[in-house]
Predict the 3D structure of the following.
Amino acid sequence: MNRDKLIEALKAIDVAGKTKEELYAEISAACMEEILSERQKAPARCAYYFSVEYLMGRMFYNNLLALGVLDEAREIFAKKGFDLNAFEDVEDAALGNGGLGRLAACYLDSAANEGYPLYGFGIRYKYGLFRQKFVNGEQVEEADDWLRTWGDPWSVRKESEKIEINFADMTVSAVPYDMPIYGKSVNTLRLFQAEGSPEAEKISEYLYPADDTEEGKLLRIRQEYFFSAAAMRQIVRDYGKKYSGNFGGFPEHCVFQLNDTHAVFAVAEFLRLLTKEYRFTFTYAVEIAKKTFNYTNHTILPEALECWDMRLVERILPEIAQILKRLHLYAKREWEAGGCSPAEIAEMSVMRRGRVSMANVAVFVSGKVNGVAEIHTKILKAQLFSTFYKHYPYKFLNVTNGVTPRRWLMLCNEELARFYDKSLGLKWRSDLNELREIHCTNENNLSEFAAIKAIKKQQLAAYIESKEGVKLLPNAMYVTQVKRLHEYKRQLMTAFAILHLYFDLKDGKLPDFTPMVFIFGAKAASGYKRAKAIIKFINDIADLVNGDEDVNARLQVVFVRNYDVSYAEKIIPGTDVSLQVSTAGFEASGTGNMKFMMNGAVTLGTLDGANIEIVDAAGGWGNYIFGAKVTEIEKIKESYDPSEFVAQNLKIKRVTDTLTDGTFGDEGGELKEVYRCLFEQTYNSPDHYLVLYDLPKYLEALLIANREYQDKELFARKQLMNATHSAYFSSDRAIREYAEKIWDL
Ligand code: 26Q
């Protein structure tokens, strides 16, 4: 990359008479020209990342930062009278739902930054994750036509490299769009678009807006096969040509990472290609596959484990169905020979009761299987994959997630980054461990940090006022829960805690209460009724609280619309307390928790997922931990009876009663349904996620934090402790672990 040339090109851009859309296209094109001029020799060994989701967000600022021209470009255009912040209106590339999709994006960023050859494959959805509106407090989804206004200047269509994908009932062209990922190495994210007929185009039309399985969906199977097969054919054909069909060396040159089971059809396609097109034996093909594939698990929720009906697979992919059946028998034979019991074989089997378990295929064929936080990996070994673990202990390892400090610190919190520059020089930018040199007891550091936090809170308040029309209380603590809406994440428990505080404040019971603002952001899967009811409930609570003159100078609730990557970039730096309150054992890792930590928010949460490691790294002193632990849950459930619990605790009863006593409108009976789910035996286990059980301890933790917040210096110290001990949660560290322990790059 020729930086001087790029700067000259930027200077030469004339702003007069141009719309911001035109300028966006022109500036992006100038950057792309430099990025694409980079010629790199093909590396001897490459890693390929298979993910059905990439939540990239906006690429503009990220790319200018990576190119090292962001500050200068701001100046150049300011002089011309154009503010580059105008591009904050550019739509996110939201080709993902949440954690798993954003993780893929962070990993691409870090791999390029660290100089590892990592190539991503996925789907170029015409419509990304829906845009969320509220109508009377209820979520309404709108199509995310992300290409309409701003186009996609960061990708290049590769018409000539299109690949034909065959289904039993149609043939589809997979047209690649390549997005360069710029860093020490320039890698590529290749997204395939389905073309050919109106039927074909449907395959890449929509991202599935659920972050758990919807059963038996033909279109989902088509999507998964479509992109995995396109990627696999390209890789296998390129290799076959280069090494004249000698696949013995394939595992030395290629390594595959499956981002959850969503691309497991790539395994079947690989076996199909090697046996049908290259005429190798099935055994040979499987043995090559075993040296090449790896699998990351992101969830233990049973409803999110993909098990496809074999009749569906047979109908549209007969050859693939055949391959899966052969693999089933192949694995069975291996296990019989290895002395596994029939029960163990049934447990691990590829097919059961007419369904194919994508997770079992993935574990069987993978050299390495990893969980995404220490505790999650332990649960994989002890529960979900215990039989596999017994027979293949060497396959399993942990790689705790990470987030990219470029987007989640340097870009979203320039003020904090500049404070670090001033204190440490620039070396922390390539190694966050340097941040430990910042002394958290030094008064100067504390007051500078507190001033930065105050600025980020003001900026956030101004932004929320402009977007939502709500003026946040200026001198309050900002307490935030932003993530997908899921019962296990327990936004409902936060809602109950707020109501509890509300009633206490009304009753004059909290005399020393520091004003608190609760900020929510969350999308619910469009078919997930209970999650939608919880959104409505929180919006109704917001109306009640914010409209009540008795309390609204001390308590405020705002649920922002359409929470996405760009909104996160504003909310996270402006937060004091990060809520991470999932039921222990259910949140595989969480990654929002890491972004908050990096920006100096304290965590108030349960010992679940990566929270455990965050508290370890920052020191327990800096955070507020409460609630049932993973090791306690089973025992608690033996005797837990939510009705009895509430009968013993009338203040909690007052709160849960609001679901049914007419405090809020409930024409469709959705709140009643939430109520029944907490108390009635008809649900296999009432209050399955222990919302009520953990609520008293949650309140206690909130009130301790509220009291300690009055000591400004103490709280700033806790926050700075978190920020300066977040190096471990950089995706640079995580990607190095993948590269060393799994990919051998
Ligand atoms: C599967 C089949 C059909 C339709 C949808 C799906 C589907 C889609 C998305 C299933 C799961 C997902 C996404 C899961 C996810 O985001 N998991 C999160 O991954 C993060 C990164 O590892 C973790 O930090 C979170 O704890 C985990 O919830």
DSSP finds 31 helices and 23 strands in the chain. Residues 97-100, 103, 208, 210-214, 220, 298-299, 304, 306, 372, 401, 587-591, 609 surround 26Q (CB under 6 Å). The CA atoms of residues 94 and 286 lie 35 Å apart. The first strand starts at residue 46 and ends at 50.
